[in-house]
Design a protein that fits this description.
By secondary structure, this protein is of the alpha+beta class. 18% of the residues lie in helices and 18% in strands. Strand 1 and strand 2 form a beta hairpin.
């Protein structure tokens, strides 16, 4: 739902994934995705735009640390080991995690 209506195509989902990514270079801060996110996971953050010469609010959200070899930082740094990132397509992994 959040991708619908983005005038620049800054918000996308790579094929074959469930990750929603926001390209900060093409986001213009219109807030359509912020207002359209049914889970309120997209928030505006202040950013000074050199090309516009003023501060705007760019959309941002967790991208699951895409491109980070170690995976999501929150999982790696959880002091209790309770944060997990698993694939629900792997039934054996889900079963062992929920035991």
């Amino acid at each position: 739902v959040c991708m619908i209506g983005c005038p620049t195509g800054a918000i996308s989902r790579p094929l074959g994934t469930l990750q929603v990514l926001i390209n900060q270079d093409t986001c213009i801060g219109c807030h359509r995705c912020v207002n359209g996110c049914p889970w309120h996971n997209i928030v505006p953050v202040p950013y000074y735009s050199p090309s516009l010469g003023r501060e705007i609010e760019l959309a941002t959200k967790c991208d699951l640390c895409v491109g980070r070899d170690e995976g999501p930082a929150c999982v790696q740094m959880c002091p209790h080991g309770s944060a997990k990132r698993i694939s629900f397509k792997d039934l054996e992994q889900v079963t062992s995690t929920l035991r």
